[in-house]
Amino acid sequence: MKGVIIFYLAMRLKNKKMKKYIILFTFLLIGINLFSQTINAPIDYQDLDKGYFKLDYEFGNVFNPELPTVIVIADAQQFYVRKGRITKIQDELFGKSFNVLGIIPRSFNEDLKEKISLKDGNKTNWKLAYTLFNSFRFANDIELIRKEVLKDQKNVHLYGQSGGAFLITEYLSLFPETNIKKVFIGASVNPVIENKLGINHDNFQRDYLAKNKNDKVKLDCVLEENFFSRKLVASLFQRQNFFVELSELNNTRSELIDHLYLKDTTYINNLKKEYQIEAINGLFDSEVGVPIRVRLSEFIYPMIENWKNNRNSFYPDLENSYNIAYPLLALNKKNNFDITQGFNEKSFRKFKGEVFILSARYNHVADYRSSIYLNGLLENSSLLVVDDDHTFKSLKSNNCYAKLIKSFFVHNNQDWQSKFNSYRWKEK
Prior knowledge:
The protein is of the alpha/beta class. Helix content is 49%, strand content 14%.
């Protein structure tokens, strides 16, 4: 009743700005998110008899049909596109010149969880999990939102980073004739391209061990003795990329190798806590971790053969992904289970919209060379390789990341990139 009274009084206000905020407060008071909505989506687009679930999507603000709309894309292993967070994403990255729509990944969908159990007794049904959460399902969810929610909109854009950016390329491979106008692809992984080119985004062997022979000898000894499991060692080095500044990374790698070599369990246990190793492992072992494992199987599967040919080398990022995705990979090996490669170069080339690709030279997840190749596949595409890491820390520290995004989506000339040239990576 309080909510109804406040809403009634707000509607009588003449101050439009004050009216807007009071109305929003009223909806929050009565437990309604004004910007959060649902649409019926097939559980399995290839078998509609399996039924439907309520797919969540959310606007960052009141929808204005006069503004262009940016759809924010996240895949199954990303957490930032969640219910109640799209307004924050809009404020931080896009501002008020756009409608911002976030598709809440089906991997977080409560309605889907209620309708489908992933448990087969005490075990996870990995085949069912892959059926529900593979990139083909996510790509079709994007197209459903575009067609049914934004069907009358002409200025529709896509934004994605990392796995979400890769999902965009998978979506465009499946729906190259879409009317999407502009696409921002940031730090995109692309294992299909890496495999084709015979390159490896995991630079630990190439950029560190090859240049630090003494540390390589020590690490070889650590891995051979197995006092600390290879799985733990891979996790520690992989997690360093997220907890250590790029400028300090090599020193920290050397320090970790020394403590592993000395069998310093106190130091390693403290580092496990600092890097949240146990918490991450707990996440992967939980129900929430199932879609993440599915997605990582799609990341690692195209690269397995090339990687196996180099098993004498140590690649912590690849090994970590392999360990996480192992249930799916084992199922594939045992039952000839089909882990689909969603990115298709031939169909991707048919997309005619404008694409901007932002890549980082020192990216431990996505090799910048695959972005150069991706850029060359399209007629209307541009590329900026910055002197930065996977999360674009340098760009973000100066608030240039958001400026770059907005500049791309609003520009009407090809010189818009010039103001960001100071961040461009130049080979020394």
